[in-house]
């Protein structure tokens, strides 16, 4: 449920993300970086459906790995970051989402613990942390073949939308789980 909803939301906001990339292109002073961003814009616009499918896959794989018995599973699905800038962008995005969604995230984490019949989930086993969704989006963007500056530009362009998508996703999940 979470994977499909997140993937659908990412696809829905992609036209707005493309508009943000267009604005960033016009503000960019480096011709080389403008070219990279133009290429990213064209590819992203053309491959929205593929991106959604990759996001769905990434979330499911990471979610399952967090809950699976193999503690090393997350290492197999971890994205290899090309730069400290990517790591900083991922952690910053996850922190902003976490701050914005704190009440709903806390409720969902407790519900997940109840469903699993376990002690409260620590961060290493919590499959609904904002970090999982940020890394899943970055992994999906990489899966489209974006690298370096293009991958970072596309990911950062999703930042504002993720601040609304993810808390809404948590709220929806809490509502559904509360009905059980």
List keywords for this structure.
180 residues; 80% helix; elongated; single chain; mainly alpha
Explain this structure.
The protein is mainly alpha-helical and 180 residues long. It has one domain (2-178). It contains 8 helices and no strands. The longest helix is centred in the C-terminal third of the chain and has 31 residues, at 148-178. It is elongated.
Helix count?
Answer: 8
Portion in beta strands:
under 5%
Q: What is the alpha-carbon Rg in Å?
A: 17 Å
How far is the N terminus from the C terminus? 15 Å
Q: What is the overall pLDDT average?
A: 90
Low-confidence stretches: none
Sheet/helix structural class: mainly alpha
Q: Quick summary of this structure?
A:
With 180 residues, this protein is mostly helical. It is built from eight helices and no strands.
Question: What's the SSE blueprint?
Answer:
Elements: H1 2-27, H2 31-46, H3 48-67, H4 73-77, H5 84-100, H6 102-116, H7 130-143, H8 148-178
């Amino acid at each position: 449920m979470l994977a499909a909803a997140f993937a659908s939301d990412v696809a829905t906001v992609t036209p707005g993300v493309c508009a943000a990339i267009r604005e960033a292109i016009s503000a960019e002073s480096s011709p080389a970086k403008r070219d990279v961003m133009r290429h990213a814009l064209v590819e992203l616009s053309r491959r929205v459906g593929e991106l959604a499918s990759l996001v769905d896959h990434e979330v499911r794989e990471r979610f399952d790995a967090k809950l699976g018995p193999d503690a090393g599973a997350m290492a197999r699905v971890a994205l290899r970051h090309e730069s400290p800038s990517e790591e900083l962008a991922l952690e910053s995005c996850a922190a902003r989402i976490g701050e914005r969604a704190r009440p709903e995230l806390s409720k969902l984490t407790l519900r997940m613990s109840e469903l699993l019949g376990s002690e409260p989930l620590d961060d290493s086993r919590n499959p609904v942390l904002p970090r999982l969704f940020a890394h899943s989006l970055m992994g999906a963007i990489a899966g489209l073949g974006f690298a370096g500056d293009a991958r970072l530009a596309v990911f950062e362009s999703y930042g504002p939308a993720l601040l609304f998508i993810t808390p809404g996703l948590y709220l929806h999940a809490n509502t559904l789980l509360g009905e059980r």
